[in-house]
Design a protein that fits this description.
The chain is built from one helix and three strands; from the N terminus they run H-E-E-E. The protein is an alpha+beta fold. It binds zinc ion (ZN).
Length: about 80
């Protein structure tokens, strides 16, 4: 029993590391409001989303963001890295 538990714990630890690395990059690409380009400065309502290490491309953070500058509401996934 303890052997199995240890194995599972190891997998969780690996997944968490994968998630943290992935999330760092993911966040870096989504620092601005997609409408006005405001950097940061938004309210957020957390919406639970699941992460599958084998399907990272399909990951979508559905947190609801409201830009404090222009009032736009969007989900976190659609925020942008640079305003053009
Ligand atoms: Zn905005």
């Amino acid at each position: 029993m303890s052997e199995k538990y240890t194995g599972l714990k190891r997998i969780w630890a690996i997944h968490r590391k994968q998630y943290e690395d992935f999330r760092e990059e993911y966040n870096r690409k989504r620092v601005r409001c997609p409408k006005c380009g405001e950097l940061g400065n938004y309210n957020v309502i957390i919406v639970k989303s699941s992460f599958n290490p084998d399907k990272q491309d399909e990951y979508m953070d559905k947190d609801k963001c409201t830009c404090l500058k222009c009032g736009d509401t969007h989900i976190f996934h659609y925020r942008i890295s640079e305003y053009k």
